[in-house]
Amino acid sequence: MLTSLAICMLLNVCVGWGTNEDLIISILGRRNASQRKLIRQCYAETYGEDLLKALDKELSNDFERVVLLLALDPPERDAYLANEATKKWTASNRILVEIACTRSPKDMILAREAYHARFKKSLEEDVAYHTKGDFRKLLVPLVSSYRYSGDDVNLHLAKSEAKILREKITAKEYSCDDIIRILTTRSRAQINATLNQYKNEFGNDVNKDLKEDPKDEFLTLLRAAVKCLVYPEKYFEKVLRLAINKLGTDEGALTRVVATRAEVDMQTIKEIYEKRNSVPLDKAICKDTHGDYEKMLLTLIGHVEE
Amino acid sequence: MLTSLAICMLLNVCVGWGTNEDLIISILGRRNASQRKLIRQCYAETYGEDLLKALDKELSNDFERVVLLLALDPPERDAYLANEATKKWTASNRILVEIACTRSPKDMILAREAYHARFKKSLEEDVAYHTKGDFRKLLVPLVSSYRYSGDDVNLHLAKSEAKILREKITAKEYSCDDIIRILTTRSRAQINATLNQYKNEFGNDVNKDLKEDPKDEFLTLLRAAVKCLVYPEKYFEKVLRLAINKLGTDEGALTRVVATRAEVDMQTIKEIYEKRNSVPLDKAICKDTHGDYEKMLLTLIGHVEE
Predict the structure, then answer these.
(1) Which residues bind Ca(2+) per the record (chains A, B) (predicted)?
(2) With a CB-CB cutoff of 8 Å, which residues 74-133 of chain A face chain B?
(3) A134, A199, B60, B271: least buried by Cβ within 10 Å?
Protein backbone atom coordinates (compact mmCIF):
# COMPACT_ATOMS: atom_id res chain seq x y z
CA MET A 1 0.00 0.00 0.00
CA LEU A 2 2.57 2.49 1.14
CA THR A 3 4.88 1.64 -1.72
CA SER A 4 2.32 2.17 -4.45
CA LEU A 5 1.22 5.37 -2.75
CA ALA A 6 4.84 6.54 -2.72
CA ILE A 7 5.24 5.69 -6.38
CA CYS A 8 2.10 7.60 -7.27
CA MET A 9 3.37 10.61 -5.41
CA LEU A 10 6.72 10.32 -7.09
CA LEU A 11 5.24 10.12 -10.55
CA ASN A 12 3.22 13.13 -9.73
CA VAL A 13 6.35 14.94 -8.61
CA CYS A 14 8.27 13.99 -11.69
CA VAL A 15 5.57 14.99 -14.10
CA GLY A 16 4.99 18.27 -12.36
CA TRP A 17 8.69 18.81 -11.56
CA GLY A 18 9.30 22.33 -10.45
CA THR A 19 5.64 23.02 -9.93
CA ASN A 20 4.89 20.73 -7.03
CA GLU A 21 7.47 21.76 -4.47
CA ASP A 22 5.40 20.86 -1.43
CA LEU A 23 5.19 17.27 -2.58
CA ILE A 24 8.93 17.14 -3.26
CA ILE A 25 9.60 18.51 0.19
CA SER A 26 7.31 16.03 1.87
CA ILE A 27 8.87 13.10 0.01
CA LEU A 28 12.53 14.03 0.22
CA GLY A 29 12.03 15.35 3.71
CA ARG A 30 11.22 11.78 4.73
CA ARG A 31 14.71 10.75 3.70
CA ASN A 32 14.02 7.29 2.36
CA ALA A 33 16.76 6.06 0.08
CA SER A 34 14.58 3.82 -2.08
CA GLN A 35 12.08 6.63 -2.67
CA ARG A 36 14.93 8.88 -3.69
CA LYS A 37 16.19 6.31 -6.12
CA LEU A 38 12.76 6.27 -7.67
CA ILE A 39 12.80 10.03 -8.02
CA ARG A 40 16.09 9.73 -9.77
CA GLN A 41 14.87 7.12 -12.23
CA CYS A 42 11.77 9.17 -12.79
CA TYR A 43 13.83 12.27 -13.44
CA ALA A 44 15.96 10.45 -15.99
CA GLU A 45 12.93 8.98 -17.75
CA THR A 46 11.00 12.21 -17.82
CA TYR A 47 13.82 14.56 -18.76
CA GLY A 48 16.18 12.19 -20.55
CA GLU A 49 18.95 13.50 -18.32
CA ASP A 50 20.73 12.20 -15.26
CA LEU A 51 20.36 14.15 -12.03
CA LEU A 52 24.14 14.44 -11.71
CA LYS A 53 24.29 16.13 -15.10
CA ALA A 54 21.48 18.45 -14.08
CA LEU A 55 23.53 19.37 -11.01
CA ASP A 56 26.41 20.44 -13.23
CA LYS A 57 24.28 23.09 -14.90
CA GLU A 58 23.83 26.54 -13.52
CA LEU A 59 20.98 25.87 -11.16
CA SER A 60 18.28 28.43 -11.09
CA ASN A 61 17.89 28.36 -7.34
CA ASP A 62 19.00 26.94 -4.01
CA PHE A 63 15.91 24.78 -3.75
CA GLU A 64 16.82 22.85 -6.88
CA ARG A 65 20.33 22.24 -5.66
CA VAL A 66 19.25 20.81 -2.33
CA VAL A 67 16.66 18.60 -4.08
CA LEU A 68 19.20 17.27 -6.55
CA LEU A 69 21.80 16.61 -3.83
CA LEU A 70 19.23 14.78 -1.74
CA ALA A 71 18.14 12.59 -4.59
CA LEU A 72 21.64 11.12 -4.86
CA ASP A 73 22.87 8.17 -2.79
CA PRO A 74 25.30 9.34 -0.10
CA PRO A 75 28.42 7.86 -1.81
CA GLU A 76 27.44 9.38 -5.13
CA ARG A 77 26.71 12.70 -3.44
CA ASP A 78 30.14 12.68 -1.81
CA ALA A 79 31.77 11.79 -5.13
CA TYR A 80 29.90 14.63 -6.80
CA LEU A 81 30.80 17.19 -4.12
CA ALA A 82 34.44 16.07 -4.08
CA ASN A 83 34.69 16.29 -7.86
CA GLU A 84 33.18 19.76 -7.81
CA ALA A 85 35.73 20.72 -5.16
CA THR A 86 38.70 19.47 -7.21
CA LYS A 87 37.49 21.37 -10.25
CA LYS A 88 36.97 24.60 -8.34
CA TRP A 89 39.83 24.02 -5.95
CA THR A 90 41.31 26.99 -4.12
CA ALA A 91 43.44 27.02 -0.98
CA SER A 92 40.40 28.12 1.03
CA ASN A 93 38.22 25.24 -0.14
CA ARG A 94 37.69 22.92 2.81
CA ILE A 95 35.23 20.48 1.21
CA LEU A 96 37.80 17.79 0.39
CA VAL A 97 39.06 17.81 3.96
CA GLU A 98 35.48 17.77 5.23
CA ILE A 99 34.55 14.72 3.16
CA ALA A 100 37.79 12.82 3.77
CA CYS A 101 37.77 13.38 7.53
CA THR A 102 34.12 13.14 8.56
CA ARG A 103 32.96 10.09 6.60
CA SER A 104 33.61 6.62 8.00
CA PRO A 105 36.47 4.74 6.31
CA LYS A 106 33.95 2.36 4.71
CA ASP A 107 31.82 5.23 3.40
CA MET A 108 34.92 6.87 2.00
CA ILE A 109 35.70 3.70 0.01
CA LEU A 110 32.11 3.70 -1.29
CA ALA A 111 32.48 7.34 -2.32
CA ARG A 112 35.70 6.50 -4.16
CA GLU A 113 33.93 3.64 -5.93
CA ALA A 114 31.12 5.99 -6.93
CA TYR A 115 33.77 8.43 -8.17
CA HIS A 116 35.21 5.74 -10.50
CA ALA A 117 31.78 4.88 -11.83
CA ARG A 118 30.78 8.46 -12.50
CA PHE A 119 33.97 10.20 -13.55
CA LYS A 120 36.03 7.32 -15.02
CA LYS A 121 38.93 8.43 -12.85
CA SER A 122 39.96 8.07 -9.24
CA LEU A 123 39.36 10.74 -6.64
CA GLU A 124 43.03 10.85 -5.59
CA GLU A 125 44.02 11.21 -9.25
CA ASP A 126 41.95 14.39 -9.60
CA VAL A 127 43.03 15.75 -6.24
CA ALA A 128 46.71 15.18 -7.05
CA TYR A 129 46.29 16.75 -10.48
CA HIS A 130 44.51 19.89 -9.29
CA THR A 131 46.54 20.70 -6.19
CA LYS A 132 50.14 21.62 -5.50
CA GLY A 133 52.88 21.75 -2.91
CA ASP A 134 51.89 21.46 0.74
CA PHE A 135 48.19 21.30 -0.11
CA ARG A 136 48.72 18.29 -2.35
CA LYS A 137 50.97 16.74 0.28
CA LEU A 138 48.10 16.88 2.78
CA LEU A 139 45.05 16.34 0.57
CA VAL A 140 46.15 13.32 -1.48
CA PRO A 141 46.82 11.04 1.51
CA LEU A 142 43.70 12.38 3.25
CA VAL A 143 41.41 11.30 0.42
CA SER A 144 43.39 8.07 -0.19
CA SER A 145 43.58 6.69 3.30
CA TYR A 146 41.45 3.80 4.45
CA ARG A 147 41.86 4.24 8.18
CA TYR A 148 41.43 1.49 10.70
CA SER A 149 38.04 2.09 12.26
CA GLY A 150 38.33 0.17 15.51
CA ASP A 151 38.64 1.62 18.99
CA ASP A 152 42.00 0.02 19.81
CA VAL A 153 44.45 2.62 21.01
CA ASN A 154 48.19 2.36 21.55
CA LEU A 155 48.89 4.74 24.42
CA HIS A 156 52.65 4.45 24.16
CA LEU A 157 52.43 5.48 20.51
CA ALA A 158 50.02 8.31 21.39
CA LYS A 159 52.60 9.70 23.81
CA SER A 160 55.49 9.48 21.38
CA GLU A 161 53.48 10.99 18.52
CA ALA A 162 52.16 13.81 20.72
CA LYS A 163 55.80 14.66 21.35
CA ILE A 164 56.61 14.58 17.64
CA LEU A 165 53.66 16.89 16.92
CA ARG A 166 54.84 19.30 19.60
CA GLU A 167 58.40 19.39 18.27
CA LYS A 168 57.32 19.97 14.69
CA ILE A 169 54.72 22.61 15.59
CA THR A 170 57.22 24.45 17.80
CA ALA A 171 59.68 24.44 14.90
CA LYS A 172 56.83 25.67 12.65
CA GLU A 173 57.35 22.68 10.34
CA TYR A 174 53.61 22.40 9.75
CA SER A 175 53.81 20.51 6.48
CA CYS A 176 56.54 18.09 7.57
CA ASP A 177 56.22 14.37 6.80
CA ASP A 178 55.44 13.44 10.39
CA ILE A 179 52.48 15.76 10.98
CA ILE A 180 50.99 14.70 7.66
CA ARG A 181 51.66 11.02 8.33
CA ILE A 182 49.99 11.10 11.74
CA LEU A 183 46.91 13.03 10.61
CA THR A 184 46.41 11.12 7.37
CA THR A 185 47.05 7.52 8.40
CA ARG A 186 46.19 6.98 12.09
CA SER A 187 42.73 5.86 13.12
CA ARG A 188 40.34 8.41 14.62
CA ALA A 189 40.62 6.73 18.01
CA GLN A 190 44.42 6.84 17.87
CA ILE A 191 44.50 10.50 16.77
CA ASN A 192 42.11 11.37 19.56
CA ALA A 193 44.38 9.66 22.08
CA THR A 194 47.41 11.46 20.66
CA LEU A 195 45.71 14.86 20.89
CA ASN A 196 44.62 14.13 24.46
CA GLN A 197 48.22 13.33 25.32
CA TYR A 198 49.28 16.53 23.59
CA LYS A 199 46.93 18.55 25.75
CA ASN A 200 47.92 16.73 28.95
CA GLU A 201 51.59 17.14 28.28
CA PHE A 202 51.83 20.57 26.70
CA GLY A 203 48.75 22.40 28.01
CA ASN A 204 47.06 23.51 24.78
CA ASP A 205 44.71 21.99 22.27
CA VAL A 206 46.78 21.22 19.19
CA ASN A 207 44.49 23.48 17.14
CA LYS A 208 45.34 26.39 19.38
CA ASP A 209 49.03 25.85 18.65
CA LEU A 210 48.21 25.60 14.94
CA LYS A 211 46.87 29.16 15.01
CA GLU A 212 50.26 30.88 14.74
CA ASP A 213 49.18 32.75 11.64
CA PRO A 214 45.37 32.77 11.35
CA LYS A 215 45.59 33.86 7.72
CA ASP A 216 47.81 30.98 6.62
CA GLU A 217 45.48 28.87 4.44
CA PHE A 218 47.50 25.70 4.97
CA LEU A 219 47.23 26.01 8.75
CA THR A 220 43.51 26.64 8.40
CA LEU A 221 43.21 23.41 6.42
CA LEU A 222 45.24 21.47 9.00
CA ARG A 223 42.97 22.75 11.78
CA ALA A 224 39.90 21.80 9.75
CA ALA A 225 41.30 18.26 9.33
CA VAL A 226 41.90 17.93 13.07
CA LYS A 227 38.44 19.24 13.90
CA CYS A 228 36.69 17.03 11.33
CA LEU A 229 38.50 13.96 12.64
CA VAL A 230 37.95 14.59 16.31
CA TYR A 231 34.84 16.79 16.63
CA PRO A 232 32.93 16.53 13.35
CA GLU A 233 29.69 17.94 14.84
CA LYS A 234 31.53 21.00 16.16
CA TYR A 235 33.13 21.47 12.77
CA PHE A 236 29.71 21.38 11.08
CA GLU A 237 28.19 23.73 13.66
CA LYS A 238 30.87 26.26 12.82
CA VAL A 239 30.32 25.92 9.07
CA LEU A 240 26.59 26.53 9.63
CA ARG A 241 27.27 29.45 11.97
CA LEU A 242 29.59 31.18 9.50
CA ALA A 243 27.22 30.45 6.59
CA ILE A 244 24.23 31.93 8.41
CA ASN A 245 26.04 34.88 10.01
CA LYS A 246 27.63 35.88 6.74
CA LEU A 247 26.29 39.03 5.16
CA GLY A 248 24.02 37.53 2.51
CA THR A 249 24.15 33.92 3.79
CA ASP A 250 26.43 31.29 2.21
CA GLU A 251 23.73 29.05 0.71
CA GLY A 252 26.33 26.69 -0.76
CA ALA A 253 27.66 25.72 2.66
CA LEU A 254 24.20 25.71 4.26
CA THR A 255 22.80 23.39 1.58
CA ARG A 256 25.82 21.08 1.70
CA VAL A 257 25.84 20.61 5.46
CA VAL A 258 22.09 20.12 5.73
CA ALA A 259 21.95 17.73 2.76
CA THR A 260 24.91 15.62 3.88
CA ARG A 261 24.32 15.54 7.65
CA ALA A 262 20.51 15.33 7.80
CA GLU A 263 20.55 11.58 8.30
CA VAL A 264 23.83 11.40 10.19
CA ASP A 265 24.42 13.73 13.11
CA MET A 266 22.07 16.68 12.58
CA GLN A 267 20.50 16.24 16.00
CA THR A 268 23.83 16.75 17.76
CA ILE A 269 24.79 19.58 15.41
CA LYS A 270 21.51 21.34 16.29
CA GLU A 271 22.18 20.99 20.01
CA ILE A 272 25.70 22.36 19.67
CA TYR A 273 24.41 25.15 17.45
CA GLU A 274 21.79 26.28 19.93
CA LYS A 275 24.26 26.18 22.81
CA ARG A 276 26.86 28.17 20.91
CA ASN A 277 24.54 30.75 19.31
CA SER A 278 21.77 31.05 21.92
CA VAL A 279 19.22 30.51 19.15
CA PRO A 280 17.86 27.25 17.72
CA LEU A 281 19.12 26.32 14.25
CA ASP A 282 15.61 26.28 12.76
CA LYS A 283 14.96 29.85 13.93
CA ALA A 284 18.27 30.98 12.46
CA ILE A 285 17.44 29.29 9.15
CA CYS A 286 13.94 30.84 9.10
CA LYS A 287 15.48 34.26 9.49
CA ASP A 288 17.97 33.86 6.66
CA THR A 289 16.10 31.86 4.00
CA HIS A 290 12.64 31.83 2.55
CA GLY A 291 10.11 29.98 0.40
CA ASP A 292 10.56 26.37 -0.68
CA TYR A 293 14.26 26.42 0.13
CA GLU A 294 13.48 27.38 3.71
CA LYS A 295 10.73 24.75 3.96
CA MET A 296 13.04 22.06 2.63
CA LEU A 297 15.89 22.90 5.01
CA LEU A 298 13.52 22.96 7.96
CA THR A 299 12.00 19.61 6.99
CA LEU A 300 15.47 18.13 6.67
CA ILE A 301 16.71 19.27 10.04
CA GLY A 302 13.54 17.85 11.57
CA HIS A 303 11.75 21.06 12.41
CA VAL A 304 8.28 20.36 13.74
CA GLU A 305 5.72 23.01 12.93
CA GLU A 306 3.77 24.22 15.92
CA MET B 1 29.70 -36.87 -2.60
CA LEU B 2 32.70 -34.79 -3.56
CA THR B 3 32.24 -32.46 -0.63
CA SER B 4 32.13 -35.19 1.99
CA LEU B 5 35.12 -36.86 0.35
CA ALA B 6 36.99 -33.56 0.54
CA ILE B 7 36.11 -33.14 4.19
CA CYS B 8 37.28 -36.66 4.99
CA MET B 9 40.57 -35.98 3.27
CA LEU B 10 40.94 -32.72 5.10
CA LEU B 11 40.31 -34.26 8.48
CA ASN B 12 42.85 -36.87 7.64
CA VAL B 13 45.33 -34.14 6.71
CA CYS B 14 44.71 -32.19 9.86
CA VAL B 15 45.03 -35.12 12.16
CA GLY B 16 48.18 -36.27 10.47
CA TRP B 17 49.53 -32.75 9.85
CA GLY B 18 53.17 -32.87 8.91
CA THR B 19 53.11 -36.59 8.22
CA ASN B 20 50.81 -36.74 5.26
CA GLU B 21 52.44 -34.35 2.83
CA ASP B 22 51.23 -36.08 -0.32
CA LEU B 23 47.65 -35.56 0.73
CA ILE B 24 48.27 -31.91 1.54
CA ILE B 25 49.88 -31.43 -1.84
CA SER B 26 47.04 -33.10 -3.67
CA ILE B 27 44.44 -31.02 -1.83
CA LEU B 28 46.12 -27.63 -1.89
CA GLY B 29 47.42 -28.26 -5.36
CA ARG B 30 43.81 -28.30 -6.50
CA ARG B 31 43.49 -24.71 -5.41
CA ASN B 32 39.93 -24.69 -4.17
CA ALA B 33 39.21 -21.79 -1.85
CA SER B 34 36.50 -23.51 0.17
CA GLN B 35 38.69 -26.56 0.77
CA ARG B 36 41.45 -24.28 1.93
CA LYS B 37 39.10 -22.58 4.32
CA LEU B 38 38.30 -25.98 5.76
CA ILE B 39 41.99 -26.75 6.21
CA ARG B 40 42.32 -23.50 8.05
CA GLN B 41 39.44 -24.23 10.40
CA CYS B 42 40.77 -27.71 10.91
CA TYR B 43 44.19 -26.39 11.71
CA ALA B 44 42.78 -23.99 14.29
CA GLU B 45 40.65 -26.69 15.91
CA THR B 46 43.41 -29.25 15.97
CA TYR B 47 46.26 -27.03 17.07
CA GLY B 48 44.39 -24.28 18.90
CA GLU B 49 46.30 -21.78 16.80
CA ASP B 50 45.50 -19.67 13.78
CA LEU B 51 47.45 -20.35 10.60
CA LEU B 52 48.53 -16.71 10.41
CA LYS B 53 50.10 -17.00 13.84
CA ALA B 54 51.81 -20.20 12.79
CA LEU B 55 53.27 -18.31 9.83
CA ASP B 56 54.83 -15.80 12.17
CA LYS B 57 56.90 -18.49 13.84
CA GLU B 58 60.23 -19.61 12.58
CA LEU B 59 59.09 -22.20 10.07
CA SER B 60 61.04 -25.40 9.97
CA ASN B 61 60.99 -25.67 6.20
CA ASP B 62 59.94 -24.18 2.89
CA PHE B 63 57.20 -26.73 2.47
CA GLU B 64 55.41 -25.50 5.57
CA ARG B 65 55.59 -21.90 4.44
CA VAL B 66 54.07 -22.57 1.05
CA VAL B 67 51.31 -24.67 2.66
CA LEU B 68 50.48 -21.97 5.17
CA LEU B 69 50.46 -19.22 2.52
CA LEU B 70 48.20 -21.28 0.30
CA ALA B 71 45.73 -21.95 3.05
CA LEU B 72 45.04 -18.23 3.40
CA ASP B 73 42.49 -16.34 1.31
CA PRO B 74 44.22 -14.13 -1.27
CA PRO B 75 43.38 -10.81 0.50
CA GLU B 76 44.55 -12.19 3.82
CA ARG B 77 47.70 -13.56 2.20
CA ASP B 78 48.46 -10.17 0.68
CA ALA B 79 47.82 -8.47 4.02
CA TYR B 80 50.14 -10.95 5.70
CA LEU B 81 52.93 -10.53 3.13
CA ALA B 82 52.59 -6.74 3.18
CA ASN B 83 52.75 -6.63 6.96
CA GLU B 84 55.83 -8.85 6.95
CA ALA B 85 57.38 -6.49 4.40
CA THR B 86 56.73 -3.38 6.50
CA LYS B 87 58.23 -5.05 9.56
CA LYS B 88 61.34 -6.19 7.70
CA TRP B 89 61.47 -3.20 5.40
CA THR B 90 64.74 -2.34 3.68
CA ALA B 91 65.32 -0.21 0.61
CA SER B 92 65.80 -3.36 -1.46
CA ASN B 93 62.48 -4.90 -0.43
CA ARG B 94 60.19 -4.85 -3.46
CA ILE B 95 57.25 -6.76 -2.00
CA LEU B 96 55.13 -3.71 -1.16
CA VAL B 97 55.52 -2.39 -4.69
CA GLU B 98 54.77 -5.85 -6.06
CA ILE B 99 51.54 -6.17 -4.10
CA ALA B 100 50.38 -2.58 -4.65
CA CYS B 101 51.03 -2.61 -8.39
CA THR B 102 50.06 -6.11 -9.54
CA ARG B 103 46.77 -6.63 -7.68
CA SER B 104 43.56 -5.23 -9.16
CA PRO B 105 42.29 -2.05 -7.45
CA LYS B 106 39.38 -4.05 -5.98
CA ASP B 107 41.68 -6.78 -4.66
CA MET B 108 43.90 -4.14 -3.12
CA ILE B 109 40.93 -2.74 -1.19
CA LEU B 110 40.12 -6.29 0.00
CA ALA B 111 43.72 -6.73 1.13
CA ARG B 112 43.53 -3.45 3.05
CA GLU B 113 40.30 -4.61 4.69
CA ALA B 114 41.97 -7.89 5.66
CA TYR B 115 44.87 -5.85 7.05
CA HIS B 116 42.49 -3.93 9.35
CA ALA B 117 40.88 -7.13 10.54
CA ARG B 118 44.14 -8.89 11.26
CA PHE B 119 46.48 -6.16 12.47
CA LYS B 120 44.07 -3.58 13.92
CA LYS B 121 45.84 -0.92 11.88
CA SER B 122 45.81 0.25 8.30
CA LEU B 123 48.38 -0.83 5.74
CA GLU B 124 49.29 2.73 4.82
CA GLU B 125 49.74 3.54 8.50
CA ASP B 126 52.39 0.84 8.88
CA VAL B 127 54.06 1.68 5.58
CA ALA B 128 54.26 5.37 6.48
CA TYR B 129 55.59 4.55 9.93
CA HIS B 130 58.32 2.16 8.77
CA THR B 131 59.64 4.05 5.75
CA LYS B 132 61.31 7.40 5.19
CA GLY B 133 62.12 10.10 2.68
CA ASP B 134 61.73 9.28 -1.00
CA PHE B 135 60.76 5.68 -0.26
CA ARG B 136 57.87 6.79 1.92
CA LYS B 137 56.91 9.38 -0.68
CA LEU B 138 56.51 6.61 -3.26
CA LEU B 139 55.26 3.69 -1.16
CA VAL B 140 52.50 5.36 0.86
CA PRO B 141 50.51 6.59 -2.17
CA LEU B 142 51.20 3.29 -3.96
CA VAL B 143 49.57 1.21 -1.24
CA SER B 144 46.82 3.82 -0.64
CA SER B 145 45.62 4.40 -4.16
CA TYR B 146 42.39 2.95 -5.43
CA ARG B 147 43.01 3.35 -9.15
CA TYR B 148 40.31 3.58 -11.74
CA SER B 149 40.23 0.18 -13.40
CA GLY B 150 38.50 0.96 -16.68
CA ASP B 151 40.09 1.05 -20.11
CA ASP B 152 39.27 4.69 -20.87
CA VAL B 153 42.38 6.56 -21.91
CA ASN B 154 42.94 10.28 -22.36
CA LEU B 155 45.52 10.52 -25.14
CA HIS B 156 46.00 14.25 -24.78
CA LEU B 157 46.86 13.72 -21.12
CA ALA B 158 49.13 10.79 -22.00
CA LYS B 159 51.12 13.06 -24.30
CA SER B 160 51.44 15.87 -21.80
CA GLU B 161 52.39 13.51 -18.96
CA ALA B 162 54.93 11.67 -21.13
CA LYS B 163 56.55 15.07 -21.64
CA ILE B 164 56.53 15.78 -17.90
CA LEU B 165 58.14 12.38 -17.21
CA ARG B 166 60.83 13.09 -19.80
CA GLU B 167 61.63 16.50 -18.35
CA LYS B 168 61.86 15.24 -14.79
CA ILE B 169 63.90 12.16 -15.72
CA THR B 170 66.30 14.26 -17.81
CA ALA B 171 66.72 16.59 -14.84
CA LYS B 172 67.27 13.49 -12.64
CA GLU B 173 64.38 14.57 -10.39
CA TYR B 174 63.30 10.97 -9.93
CA SER B 175 61.39 11.50 -6.70
CA CYS B 176 59.64 14.70 -7.76
CA ASP B 177 55.92 15.17 -7.09
CA ASP B 178 54.96 14.70 -10.74
CA ILE B 179 56.60 11.32 -11.35
CA ILE B 180 55.15 10.02 -8.10
CA ARG B 181 51.72 11.48 -8.83
CA ILE B 182 51.54 9.92 -12.30
CA LEU B 183 52.74 6.46 -11.20
CA THR B 184 50.67 6.30 -8.04
CA THR B 185 47.31 7.72 -9.13
CA ARG B 186 46.72 7.10 -12.84
CA SER B 187 44.92 3.98 -14.02
CA ARG B 188 46.95 1.14 -15.53
CA ALA B 189 45.47 1.86 -18.96
CA GLN B 190 46.38 5.54 -18.69
CA ILE B 191 49.94 4.81 -17.51
CA ASN B 192 50.37 2.35 -20.35
CA ALA B 193 49.26 5.01 -22.83
CA THR B 194 51.63 7.55 -21.29
CA LEU B 195 54.59 5.16 -21.49
CA ASN B 196 53.75 4.35 -25.10
CA GLN B 197 53.77 8.06 -25.87
CA TYR B 198 57.07 8.35 -24.03
CA LYS B 199 58.60 5.68 -26.21
CA ASN B 200 57.15 7.11 -29.42
CA GLU B 201 58.31 10.60 -28.62
CA PHE B 202 61.67 10.03 -26.95
CA GLY B 203 62.82 6.67 -28.32
CA ASN B 204 63.44 4.71 -25.11
CA ASP B 205 61.38 2.68 -22.70
CA VAL B 206 60.97 4.78 -19.60
CA ASN B 207 62.63 2.02 -17.57
CA LYS B 208 65.73 2.28 -19.70
CA ASP B 209 65.96 5.98 -18.88
CA LEU B 210 65.42 5.14 -15.21
CA LYS B 211 68.63 3.09 -15.23
CA GLU B 212 71.00 6.04 -14.82
CA ASP B 213 72.49 4.50 -11.71
CA PRO B 214 71.70 0.76 -11.52
CA LYS B 215 72.72 0.66 -7.86
CA ASP B 216 70.34 3.40 -6.77
CA GLU B 217 67.72 1.52 -4.73
CA PHE B 218 65.06 4.18 -5.26
CA LEU B 219 65.42 3.96 -9.03
CA THR B 220 65.24 0.17 -8.78
CA LEU B 221 61.96 0.51 -6.89
CA LEU B 222 60.57 2.98 -9.45
CA ARG B 223 61.42 0.56 -12.27
CA ALA B 224 59.77 -2.29 -10.35
CA ALA B 225 56.61 -0.17 -9.98
CA VAL B 226 56.53 0.58 -13.70
CA LYS B 227 57.09 -3.05 -14.60
CA CYS B 228 54.50 -4.36 -12.15
CA LEU B 229 51.92 -1.91 -13.48
CA VAL B 230 52.53 -2.48 -17.15
CA TYR B 231 54.03 -5.99 -17.50
CA PRO B 232 53.28 -7.89 -14.29
CA GLU B 233 53.99 -11.31 -15.85
CA LYS B 234 57.43 -10.12 -17.05
CA TYR B 235 58.12 -8.77 -13.59
CA PHE B 236 57.26 -12.13 -12.01
CA GLU B 237 59.31 -14.05 -14.57
CA LYS B 238 62.32 -11.98 -13.59
CA VAL B 239 61.76 -12.54 -9.87
CA LEU B 240 61.59 -16.29 -10.53
CA ARG B 241 64.66 -16.18 -12.77
CA LEU B 242 66.74 -14.36 -10.18
CA ALA B 243 65.45 -16.59 -7.36
CA ILE B 244 66.34 -19.78 -9.25
CA ASN B 245 69.64 -18.59 -10.70
CA LYS B 246 70.85 -17.33 -7.37
CA LEU B 247 73.59 -19.33 -5.73
CA GLY B 248 71.55 -21.30 -3.22
CA THR B 249 68.10 -20.40 -4.58
CA ASP B 250 65.97 -17.66 -3.00
CA GLU B 251 63.16 -19.84 -1.63
CA GLY B 252 61.35 -16.85 -0.14
CA ALA B 253 60.80 -15.26 -3.54
CA LEU B 254 60.11 -18.59 -5.24
CA THR B 255 57.47 -19.53 -2.67
CA ARG B 256 55.85 -16.10 -2.75
CA VAL B 257 55.51 -15.87 -6.52
CA VAL B 258 54.23 -19.44 -6.92
CA ALA B 259 51.79 -19.14 -4.02
CA THR B 260 50.38 -15.76 -5.10
CA ARG B 261 50.30 -16.22 -8.89
CA ALA B 262 49.28 -19.90 -9.16
CA GLU B 263 45.65 -19.06 -9.76
CA VAL B 264 46.23 -15.77 -11.53
CA ASP B 265 48.73 -15.59 -14.38
CA MET B 266 51.09 -18.55 -13.86
CA GLN B 267 50.43 -19.91 -17.33
CA THR B 268 51.69 -16.70 -18.98
CA ILE B 269 54.59 -16.44 -16.53
CA LYS B 270 55.64 -19.99 -17.47
CA GLU B 271 55.56 -19.17 -21.17
CA ILE B 272 57.65 -16.03 -20.69
CA TYR B 273 60.03 -17.95 -18.43
CA GLU B 274 60.66 -20.67 -20.96
CA LYS B 275 61.17 -18.16 -23.77
CA ARG B 276 63.61 -16.09 -21.74
CA ASN B 277 65.58 -18.95 -20.15
CA SER B 278 65.38 -21.66 -22.82
CA VAL B 279 64.24 -24.10 -20.15
CA PRO B 280 60.71 -24.77 -18.86
CA LEU B 281 59.96 -23.45 -15.39
CA ASP B 282 59.13 -26.91 -14.00
CA LYS B 283 62.51 -28.26 -15.10
CA ALA B 284 64.26 -25.29 -13.50
CA ILE B 285 62.33 -25.85 -10.27
CA CYS B 286 63.12 -29.59 -10.28
CA LYS B 287 66.79 -28.78 -10.53
CA ASP B 288 66.82 -26.35 -7.64
CA THR B 289 64.41 -27.81 -5.10
CA HIS B 290 63.59 -31.23 -3.74
CA GLY B 291 61.19 -33.36 -1.72
CA ASP B 292 57.72 -32.20 -0.73
CA TYR B 293 58.58 -28.58 -1.42
CA GLU B 294 59.47 -29.44 -5.00
CA LYS B 295 56.32 -31.57 -5.41
CA MET B 296 54.14 -28.77 -4.06
CA LEU B 297 55.63 -26.10 -6.34
CA LEU B 298 55.29 -28.36 -9.35
CA THR B 299 51.66 -29.15 -8.50
CA LEU B 300 50.93 -25.46 -8.12
CA ILE B 301 52.43 -24.40 -11.42
CA GLY B 302 50.41 -27.15 -13.08
CA HIS B 303 53.20 -29.59 -13.89
CA VAL B 304 51.86 -32.80 -15.37
CA GLU B 305 53.88 -35.89 -14.54
CA GLU B 306 54.76 -37.98 -17.54
Answers:
(1) 16, 18, 58, 244, 246, 248, 288-289, 294
(2) 109, 112-113, 116, 120-125, 128-129, 132
(3) B60
